[in-house]
Amino acid sequence: MTKKEKDMKKISFLLAILLLASSFLMTACKKEKPEETTPAGTTPTATTPAATTPEVTTKPEENPPVVHASILVENLKNYEIVSAKGASNEVSKMTKTLQETMQNIYQIPINFKTANAYNIKDYEILVGDTGREESQAFLSDLKWDDYGYGIVGNKLVIAGKNEDGTFAALCEFILQLATNADSEVFFSNENQSIERAVYPYETITVNGIAAEDLSILCNQQELGGVAQIFRDAIIEACGIAVPIITDADVKEGDKLFVIGASAHVTEDAWVNALNGNDYSIHSNENLIWLNAKTSAGYYSAAEYMDACLSSDGKGADRVVFSQGITMGYDALPVMSFNLMAGKESERLDAVVETILKYRPAVVGVQEATDMWIGLLNQRLGDIYTIVGDGRNADRGDEHSAILYLTAEFDCLESGTKWLSETPDVPGSQHSTATSKYPRIMTYVHLSRKSDGKEFLHVNTHLDYGTTPEQEAVKVAQIEVLLGQIEKFADIPTIITGDFNATVGSPVYNRIGDKGYLEVAHYIPAEDREPTYHALMGTTGEPSHIDFVFCKGVSGMFHRICTERVDNENVSDHYPIFAVLMFYSDGK
After folding, report:
1. Is residue 9 within 8 Å of residue 166, measured between CB atoms?
2. Is residue 36 situated within a structural domain?
3. Residues 519, 396: one domain?
4. Where does residue 51 rank: exposed (0-12), middle (13-18), buried (19+ CB within 10 A)?
5. Residues 215, 94: one domain?
6. Domain holding 395: CATH number?
């Protein structure tokens, strides 16, 4: 089980505990507010609304007790909760839960506001990276997957290095509040908590530049996926989140890993010497530069860099990328993306940004409603051609559509089939189906304009459910799909989709029995990160149910795109990005 899966299970457990504790909280909120012992109009002198130090005896001791900063319940009226600007919906909702929990337990009104540079109070509860110096001080000691809470100066900080970490920190803090409701001390640093992830290395150097000193410079949107792959590889190795910047962000003295064109590199001779899918890496003491002429070249380099950094503790902490020109492979970037039906207009920008960041040659989308298809045609129609019909009898509703780069491929054939005993009948369902929704497959037979290489892309979304009966339905549906593409058996084939099934399930194994290899087949089921994360109000357990299968091409790289856009999840599924390689004979 990966750390992300463990964290998500832990968070789910904590939320369940919070629900169970709700009856206790309701009881706690009925406590009478302590009587004021200080006359009205006067200022208490014994305890100030600060991160206080308890009084200690003046009697000399050989080993004086450890004194912890603390915040007293009676001083909470002077505090307010400050949330980071741009916090995710999940963090914002959990911060609101913190406010409500505090008010229920202590019967004290607690203000809640978003951080800004004005009206900074002396006494605050800071959630996430608020930009306050106390938040910065707390976060400076954390790595990417670390999170926790503690008092810094007069303020309580609850935060993680990323939104998932801040969410986890909030859950744990609220839990300890519920179990400590009768104390006169709201919080003491005696209970400070920091959860630290374990990484193969404390830090790494790349071509002599330390990760903590490095910035990734990427000006071209379509190379954002390459930058993200390199950044995530460093995070996996040592937990240091290297910033991704553009030319406009560069400051004097910055040490840069430059991807593609930049005003900070001028050796055009390196670029002119590249052929086909070659890539080049050059470096000096302050700069590393990666360049290529094609997306295949860049993704060849990304796979090489990821392999160098993904040593799992077995390699060196001093990574050296080979300098000079390297021959890249004939890469075919592919994406599978369950868009999630609903709130299409709200999420359109994020979906488009995610697709363009990786710029796959083909994209298989699921839950693509009629609105999704219309919006994607408006925004991406000058780059991608979209093929496929909706699942209903009128060919509307959800599509399992395929997008392909119009400038790079010619469409030889495309179509939509229904996964039933009558695949040419729109809206038809398999006789064994247990759900009310028709299931479909969309296929497209493409020829690459540059060299005539052909391949078939098939995209689908199978029935849900995990009972033996429901698993049998999925196997029956995939049998229809496999039968429909038998006529394309002689060309390389890619199958993408939301299979509503996990590694080792009957439908997963059936696809393998037909000679298809899942691109991430080398990752054990227990180590899989979820592709369905259930963090957008949808139900179900997080699980890995989206896959890319291939036959006649080789899988070179696989990535679950977990990054957010503007601190929000793009869908309730993470997209899968894979880089495949054509064999030298064209297949």
Report:
1. no
2. no
3. yes
4. buried
5. no
6. 3.60.10.10
Beta strand segments in 238-323, E: 244-245, 255-259, 279-283, 287-292, 318-319
Q: For helices 295-309 and 224-238, what crossing angle results, to 10°?
A: 0
Interval 33-43: pLDDT, tens: 333 333 333 33
Q: Give residue-wise pLDDT tens across range 267-304.
A: 665 667 788 889 999 999 999 999 998 999 999 999 99
Q: Supply the Cα-derived Rg of the chain in whole angstroms.
A: 27
Q: Where are the alpha helices (DSSP H) in 189-240?
A: 224-238
Six-digit token string for 260: 């593609």
Greater model confidence, 577 or 50 = 577
Instruction: Return d(Cα 422, Cα 551) in angstroms, integer.
Output: 26
Which CATH number does the domain housing residue 321 bear?
3.30.379.10
Which strands sit side by side in the sheet containing 193-195, from one edge to the other?
111-114, 80-83, 124-127, 155-160, 147-152, 193-195
Q: Give the pairing of strands 80-83 and 124-127.
A: parallel
Q: Are 578 and 343 in contact (CB under 8 A)?
A: no
Contact 572, 338 (CB under 8 A): yes
Whether residues 234 and 127 fall in one domain: no
Q: How many CB atoms lie within 10 A of CB 570?
A: 25
Let me know if residue 397 belongs to a domain: yes
Give 584's contacts (C-beta < 8 A, 6+ positions apart): 330
pLDDT at residue 276 in the model: 86
55 SS3 class: coil
Choose the final residue of a domain: 195, 223, 238: 195
Q: What is the pLDDT of residue 318?
A: 85
Contact 232, 239 (CB under 8 A): no
Sequence letter at residue 485: I
Amino acid sitting at position 419: L
The pTM assigned to this predicted structure is 0.81
Find the domain containing 184 and state its range.
3-22+67-195
How far apart, in whole angstroms, are the C-alpha atoms of residue 578 and residue 549?
10
Q: Are 289 and 325 contacting, i.e. CB atoms less than 8 angstroms apart?
A: no
Q: At what angle do helices 3-20 and 163-178 cross, to 10 degrees?
A: 30
Report residue 14 as tokens: 């904590």
The encoded tokens of residue 173 equal: 């803090």
Query: Are residues 390 and 399 in contact, defined by beta-carbon separation less than 8 angstroms?
Result: yes
Is residue 256 located within the same domain as residue 370?
A: no
In a domain, 46, yes or no: no
Q: How many domains does the chain have?
A: 3
